[in-house]
Specification:
268 residues, globular, 13 helices, 53% helix, 2 domains
């Protein structure tokens, strides 16, 4: 099974010497379990210093790796040892990767009633999900703009089919509901043009707790929310306010190397 952009040279380039050495040690002692591929997503469990294994998620496209996250608290230079160990397994033993259906493919096998039942059972196991669903549904009810918008604005969201709501909510994985729902991103993209103040408030409200709590595996999501906030600031003609806000964040979180590296994306 060929996965583009995964080589030992790439792994070394994106990790420091200590992480690479420890990751190779983890690989050699067989700490990687449940290694599977779903579309352009690689997932693995890696045994570490805790009772519960760490969860590694790696996304890629035709050009190579686009993101790599781990649930461990590592927040230093480059990829952690668990990501390194996972990628070494992919590079050296690609035949052990189990090919599994994507979430979209799984959902396509279900009819409306089965999809509803699935969501109900998931809420029973994780009751907090109902609050996320409630918030997403309320976002759908954004008021329509009173004036015509430029032709460059986002297309309207089709909110009629219930099943499409469920699929959008689930598509990025239930573990990412709070931070990375495709539906919420689409709503915010559309709202930038007619409710930029609302976008700024909500994007900051999602990004700031991730950074303040040092959730290193969520920093990429925080930066994505900040991109929404930046677009809204610029839409309002408040470039200076955006620059001041970014400087405030950099002063508060400047020691978080992984986060500061991702902040470079805000220059685009």
């Amino acid at each position: 099974m060929s996965i583009p952009g995964i080589s030992e040279a790439i792994i070394r380039h994106n990790s420091n010497a200590s992480s690479y050495s420890r990751g190779e040690e983890y690989y050699r002692k067989g700490a990687i379990a449940d290694l599977k591929k779903r579309g352009n997503l690689i997932q693995a469990e890696v045994e570490g210093g805790e009772i519960t294994p760490y969860q590694v998620s790696i996304c890629f496209d035709a050009g190579g790796i686009t993101s790599a996250c781990c649930t461990c608290p590592y927040d230093y230079d480059g990829w952690c040892k668990h990501i390194v160990a996972t990628l070494l397994s992919c590079s050296r033993q690609s035949e052990i990767i189990e090919e599994r259906p994507t979430l979209e493919q799984l959902l396509n096998r279900l009819d409306l009633l089965q999809t509803q039942r699935l969501l109900q059972e998931l809420v029973e196991n994780r009751p907090e999900i109902i609050d996320d669903i409630d918030e997403f549904v309320s976002l759908i009810d954004l008021p329509k703009p009173k004036t015509k918008q430029p032709s460059t604005r986002q297309s309207k969201i089709d909110i009629s089919p219930f099943r499409s709501h469920v699929k959008r909510i689930l598509r990025d994985g239930l573990k990412e509901l709070e931070y990375a729902s495709e539906l919420v991103h689409r709503v915010m993209n559309a709202a930038v043009f007619h409710r930029p103040d609302w976008v700024i408030d909500n994007a900051r409200r999602r990004a700031e707790p991730i950074m303040e709590q040092g959730k290193a595996d969520r920093y990429d999501a925080a930066v994505n929310w900040l991109k929404k906030a930046k677009a809204a600031y610029l839409q309002l003609g408040k470039k200076a306010e955006w620059s001041a806000y970014r400087s405030q964040l950099e002063a508060a979180h400047g020691r978080k190397r992984k986060l500061m590296e991702l902040f470079k994306e805000l220059n685009k």
